[in-house]
Write a structure and sequence with these properties.
Blueprint: E1 2-6, H1 9-20, E2 27-32, H2 37-40, E3 45-48, H3 54-64, E4 68-71, H4 74-79, H5 81-87, E5 92-93, H6 97-104, H7 106-115, E6 124-128, H8 134-141, E7 146-150, E8 159-161, H9 169-183, E9 185-190, E10 195-204, E11 207-210, E12 215-216, E13 219-221, E14 225-228, E15 233-236, H10 247-268, E16 273-283, E17 286-293, H11 300-304, H12 312-320, E18 335-343, E19 356-357, E20 366-370, E21 373-375, E22 381-383, E23 389-395, H13 398-410, E24 416-417, H14 425-439
Parallel strand pairs: 1-2, 1-4, 2-3, 4-5
Antiparallel strand pairs: 6-9, 7-8, 7-9, 10-11, 10-16, 12-15, 13-14, 15-18, 16-17, 18-23, 18-24, 19-22, 20-23, 21-22
Helix pairs in contact: 6-7, 8-9
Bound molecules: adenosine monophosphate and glycine (GLY).
């Protein structure tokens, strides 16, 4: 069994680790944009290539002749790497370009839900060149509580929220026009108030199997302050729900992934095969959709995949062959806390890039997944500019998992930092309190 893993960073390391644990002992051949020592240790070969350079990726795939490919990041999925691999006879765990629009186009996602009567969206409007004069009026109608979304992938930087990034109706109009000029369309929607969480599912057509729910922390600094990042850390609970969600909330999110998978198959007339990642928000009105992604999240994959007890290769084959079923997927009833180690200079600059760091050894209840790290000729680890390593603690409770992750983070030596507050009871209590206020 040969698997071509096109991926990068810590999410790629977590996927490689889950594939490598399969009793089928697959041979992993990785294609990465920059050498990753974590993936390299699990792969028989690591090719370095720009994942958007399809000619090079396809040439590697032809040479390798894998049984299947796993395409992990959003850009190559959105640009159609799955379709290109399929043309040379290789199936992927990742949706085709048309289906991946659920992530690559915010307007496609909102309109899909609307057209299929899936009631989980805030008020929204898609605006293009022909009706830019509606922008001002719509922002007024939303009484200044708006979110403006670039209608294509933009590395997590396309969404601007009133009160955070934009501070007046005029600033909103200017950003909306900038989006239209750059990508032809903009989505403007009502700003929702509540607590966000992620629910990812394995999907093969209408077969949907859910993973444990996870909560991410996007802000750079303690107490959810500072700029947004790719995600500074995450936690999940042993019951696979989250402390601020009711059973009804979790069921609603699960139902939305199910309904959306079905709507995608109907709309595109072909099955979605891959990971469907629902970014939800628990609000006064119940569970609403913030966005869908068509891939594993980073850090979410770092919490979820170490808990997978069943054979990940079987799950991948089930997705590809439309033979996925609930009984193929089992997760340990454990809680996890992931804290990302980053350079001290992150996210403002890449000032610490090239400086060395030392990582501690892990026991059975922890994982360290390597992100933007390289290895020097003498084998020492060097920082890149972005998130360095996701350190995951696994325990019977969030508190136990947090203390494992925290003590390992403290043992990392080098010019690095991490958020000590992620997964602590104080921060979780804040979410529970906010949810209680929101529900009133
Ligand atoms: P997205 O790329 O769509 O996940 O948006 C990035 C972030 O913007 C989300 O994680 C939310 O914090 C925020 N956001 C997006 N849409 C909304 C919305 N309708 N209401 C409030 N916040 C939102
Ligand atoms: N955790 C956010 C993302 O992967 O998009």
């Amino acid at each position: 069994m040969k698997i071509l893993l096109t991926s990068l960073a810590a999410r790629g390391h977590a996927i490689a680790d889950a594939l490598a644990r399969s009793p089928q002992k697959p041979e992993i051949i990785s294609v990465v944009p920059a050498k990753n020592p974590g993936i390299a240790a699990l792969a028989s070969k690591q090719f370095v290539a720009d994942l958007m350079d399809f000619d090079t990726v396809l040439a590697i795939a032809k040479k390798v002749q894998p049984d299947f490919a796993f395409v992990a990041p959003d850009d190559p999925i959105g640009a159609g790497l799955t379709d290109a691999l399929e043309e040379i006879g290789i199936q992927s765990v990742a949706p085709r370009k048309k289906l991946a629009q659920i992530e690559s186009s915010k307007s496609f996602a909102r309109e899909l839900l609307h057209n299929h009567h899936i009631d989980a969206s805030p008020m929204f409007r898609c605006i293009s060149k022909s009706n830019t004069s509606d922008i001002h009026e719509y922002l007024d109608e939303l009484e200044g509580n708006y979110v403006i979304k670039y209608d294509a992938l933009k590395g997590g930087k396309g969404v601007k929220v009133s009160g955070e990034h934009l501070h007046s109706i005029d600033e909103g109009v200017a950003y909306a026009i900038e989006c239209i000029e750059e990508c032809g369309r903009v989505v403007i929607e009502e700003k929702l108030i509540g607590v966000e969480f992620s629910l990812l599912s394995f999907v093969s057509g209408e077969q949907v199997v859910d993973m444990p729910a996870v909560q991410d922390h996007k802000r750079a600094f303690e107490g959810d302050t500072g700029p947004n990042t790719g995600g500074m850390g995450t936690y999940s609970d042993s019951n696979h729900s989250l402390p601020f969600l009711s059973d009804t909330d979790l069921e609603a999110a699960k139902r939305l992934n199910q309904q959306t998978a079905q709507a995608l198959s109907t709309e595109c007339n072909e099955p979605f095969k891959g990971i469907l990642y629902g970014g939800f928000i628990a609000t006064k009105k119940g569970i609403q959709l913030i966005e869908y992604n068509a891939r594993f999240g980073d850090p979410e994959a770092l919490n979820i995949l170490p808990l997978l007890e069943s054979d990940f290769v079987d799950i991948c084959l089930g997705i590809i062959n439309e033979e996925l079923s609930e009984d193929m997927v089992s997760f340990a009833k454990k809680a996890t806390v992931c804290k990302y180690i980053t350079p001290e200079s992150y996210p403002e600059s890449k000032g610490n890039s090239g400086e060395s760091l030392t990582l501690p050894d892990t026991g059975p209840n922890a994982r360290i997944y390597l992100g933007d790290i390289s290895e020097s000729d003498d084998g020492s680890l060097l920082l890149g500019g972005s998130r360095t390593a996701g350190i995951v603690g696994i325990g019977d409770s969030i508190a136990e998992a947090e203390s494992i992750a925290q003590s390992l983070c403290e043992k990392v030596e080098g010019p690095v930092r991490f958020r000590t507050d992620i997964g602590t009871q104080a921060v979780i209590d804040k979410r529970i309190d906010l949810m209680q206020t929101v529900r009133i």
